[in-house]
């Protein structure tokens, strides 16, 4: 296997004094004709041009909330070959294989191929790209700031579909469902890390043996916190998170955090206290269903009178024109035996996520009450810790193979 360092040196040489002759000529051709000599994608008319446009293909509940697929797998990828027409065709044909095998919906397979900071940095275009290297965003965390060439996101209600897709993309599975294997991502990438998880009633309680989860977590719990996540009123639209103009138009950015959770003490709190910590003091347990929750913008008043603030009322302040600015597609995980969340957030620019995290920190509230500290009585911060951060760009579907800077 080619060493990572050796590969990066060769790729850097291609984009250096040689006049950008190697990969830049490929990327220039990709910009003009993203699929090169390949015929146009035969399924282009039935698939959204935006890879991240999942909402119309999701199930919904009785109150109109989109319900994410119940199972996810993420593959952090490193390039194992120099960029070339052949490599770009392999990537495109691999993604078309997934599209041929399954319907693009929760019952079939939803997917995105994103490109990371390492990819853009290798070509000297990270500064002009829509993403940047991840940063430490809280003085209460010390996350691993990670960089990858790419990430494949797979999601389905059917766990065996994810297993089959993984084998087809990175192993020697001869067919996928009834589809011929046209290309394998494993011929271009190696897997640097593999992550998985789940979301939906019955799944958190089925994994109650993980560290940080009590054995008596309710069966109906949607998340390890016991509450529903993803209310429509707290989610940005897909239009809002799409880049409007420039060379990266039509795509979006992903911020991915691994957040460890320690909810043993959480479940020792009364339900009314859990509601205050997650939402705000203005709500009672009877108010909390799956409908939209009004935002009163009384965070300072609650900090002063209650000595505590809720997670929802803090992050709801990070809006533009009254609308949320990030679209969450996060899910529970027990990777490594530790309960947590893979927090996958879509936004137009990474700074949008950073604004939300800054609001979540709540440091500006500490002077309101002596019992409100960096973590204590400060929403969910007492129960979570960020373990890693990374950033990615998601190109439009027709530019997903080696997006041009």
UniProtKB/TrEMBL annotation:
Supply the PROSITE patterns for this chain: PROKAR_LIPOPROTEIN, TAT
Q: Which Pfam families match?
A: DUF7405 (PF24152)
What the entry lists under InterPro entries is as follows:
Dimeric_a/b-barrel, DUF7405, TAT_signal
Domain of life per record: Archaea
**Residues passing through the membrane, by range:** none
- Spell out the protein name for this chain: Tat (Twin-arginine translocation) pathway signal sequence domain-containing protein
The species this protein belongs to is: Haloarcula japonica (strain ATCC 49778 / DSM 6131 / JCM 7785 / NBRC 101032 / NCIMB 13157 / TR-1)
């Amino acid at each position: 296997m080619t060493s990572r360092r050796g590969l990066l040196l060769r790729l850097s040489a291609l984009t250096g004094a040689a006049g950008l002759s190697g990969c830049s000529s490929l990327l220039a051709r990709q910009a003009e004709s993203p699929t090169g000599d390949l015929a146009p994608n035969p399924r282009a008319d039935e698939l959204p041009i935006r890879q991240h446009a999942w909402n119309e293909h999701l199930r919904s509940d009785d109150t109109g909330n989109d319900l994410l697929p119940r199972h996810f797998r993420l593959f952090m990828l490193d390039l194992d070959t120099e960029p070339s027409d052949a490599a770009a065709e392999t990537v495109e044909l691999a993604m078309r294989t997934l599209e041929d095998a399954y319907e693009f919906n929760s019952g079939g397979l939803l997917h995105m191929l994103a490109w990371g900071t390492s990819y853009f940095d290798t070509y000297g275009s990270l500064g002009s790209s829509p993403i940047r290297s991840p940063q430490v965003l809280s003085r209460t965390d010390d996350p691993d700031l990670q960089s990858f060439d790419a990430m494949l996101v797979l999601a389905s209600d059917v766990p065996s579909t994810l297993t089959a897709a993984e084998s087809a993309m990175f192993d020697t599975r001869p067919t996928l469902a009834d589809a011929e294997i046209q290309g394998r991502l494993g011929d271009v990438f190696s897997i640097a890390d593999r992550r998985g998880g789940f979301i939906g009633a019955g799944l958190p309680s089925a994994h109650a043996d993980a560290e940080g989860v009590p054995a008596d977590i309710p069966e109906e719990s949607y998340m390890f916190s016991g509450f529903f996540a993803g209310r429509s009123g707290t989610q940005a639209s897909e239009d809002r998170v799409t880049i409007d103009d420039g060379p990266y138009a039509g795509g979006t950015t992903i911020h991915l955090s691994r957040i460890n959770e320690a909810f043993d003490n959480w479940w020792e709190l009364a339900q009314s206290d859990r509601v205050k910590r997650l939402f705000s003091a203005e709500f009672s347990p009877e108010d909390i269903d799956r409908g939209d929750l009004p935002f009163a913008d009384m965070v300072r008043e609650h900090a002063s009178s209650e000595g505590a603030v809720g997670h929802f009322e803090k992050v709801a302040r990070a809006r533009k024109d009254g609308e949320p600015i990030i679209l969450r597609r996060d899910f529970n995980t027990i990777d490594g035996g530790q309960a947590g969340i893979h927090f996958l957030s879509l936004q137009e620019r990474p700074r949008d996520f950073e604004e939300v995290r800054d609001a979540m920190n709540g440091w500006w509230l500490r002077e309101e009450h002596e019992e409100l500290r960096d973590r204590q009585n400060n929403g969910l911060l007492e129960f979570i810790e960020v373990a890693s951060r990374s950033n990615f760009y998601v190109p439009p579907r027709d530019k997903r193979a080696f997006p041009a800077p």
